[in-house]
């Protein structure tokens, strides 16, 4: 017979979403949670990420609500002096280990690592096949799907193209093992590809020895404007809403945001169609612009020793070239679904971006004892930005969701104290003139900005 565990919640996934949800839930409510994950510990994709990866945002915006990731320190040297620290992979994994250990020690949380949920509250060991049945205590156990928006990384995804026997193709994780390669062809338009190129250039590869296969042009956020300082972050929001209120088209809006120092693009002669909008340092932008051999022939269909075959043509590769696969869909473009249904709780981002904040908010609201219908009203999910129109929809829906949950006094008080909240104004900041000025501008421009973004998200590319 299967072993049994009694719990109030069964959380599937111990990555950033599952950990943020569980932490907020057990902090607010007297419940017991079993967390199951296929990996051997918490942290999700970070446990398999490439070794030189860092958060693309400030550490403070990532992790769980009860324990800030990092010290909140500002960097004092290097190309990001003056910006808040960004944790690397080892720091993030150690952080999640510590958070989990604290909750396990409390007797409220148990992790079944190296296990998978096979349905009906039944969990199976990937190594032995032994099963564990998770049953409810006072009520049926509640299932939480923390994998719905799980990142997909190249090291763990199937390639979408054919690879010839004589081709040298590696995931980005293996870059450290190909130091002898005289040339690198980097596949991908997103954050992983930019990290790979910055890494290659940082270890001395000539920009002319890099071929960048970039099917789409991306918009990115200037990291200097996405900082935990409310004077900086709220000023960015105010600039965005001001520009949106006057926008004729989405392309023109992004160009205006570029001029205001909020958005960045690698090639200013190209109009980007991709708006997942990770943050990027201007020092990284300078390095990326040094790579001039950019291939815009669509996606790769097949890789060979001497060439790449793409949707719209082929590109030759020099002898000894290595193809670096960075093309996985890091943020899956999945539709929003109700967070609470009778069958499952599905944590998702609630405001625009910042998925850890969204998952923690869902956990906190779940612990409040409200009915599911009211919880869904308070936590309407948002999609991730991908196209410009999706970015506009995400921004509108996130602003409207924020207005709803901030109208509940208990939630507003928790949000105001939560370091994961990017617009948090700490008591020590409330009296700063620059913070008050930024807040005034946000209030002034948001109504018209949100209304115009809503129209642009619907395809109304005409002046209001």
Helix content: 25-40%
* Quantity of strands, as a count: 20
Structural class label: alpha/beta
How far apart are the first and last residues' alpha carbons, in Å?
A: 67 Å
Radius of gyration: 23 Å
Tell me the number of helical segments per DSSP (H or I, 4 or more residues long): 11
Largest sheet: 5 strands, parallel
**Spatial order of the strands in the main sheet?**
10-20-11-12-16
Unreliable spans: none
Beta content comes to: 15-25%
Overall geometry comes to globular
Mean pLDDT: 95
Walk me through what this model shows.
The protein has 464 residues and is α/β, with parallel strands linked by helices. Helices cover 31% and strands 16% of the residues. It contains 11 helices and 20 strands. It has helices at residues 16-28, 89-105, 191-202, 230-245, 250-259, 282-289, 355-366, 372-378, 388-405, 409-416, 433-457; strands at 3-6, 9-12, 33-37, 109-113, 115-119, 122-125, 131-135, 142-145, 162-163, 169-171, 184-187, 210-213, 219-222, 263-265, 279-280, 294-295, 300-303, 307-310, 313-316, 322-325. Strands 10-20-11-12-16 form a 5-stranded parallel sheet, with helices on one face. Strands 1-7-6-5 form a 4-stranded mixed sheet, with no helix packed on it. It has a 4-stranded parallel sheet with strand order 4-3-2-8. Strand 3, helix 2 (89-105) and strand 4 (109-113) form a beta-alpha-beta unit. The chain is globular, with a radius of gyration of 23 Å. The N and C termini lie far apart (67 Å).
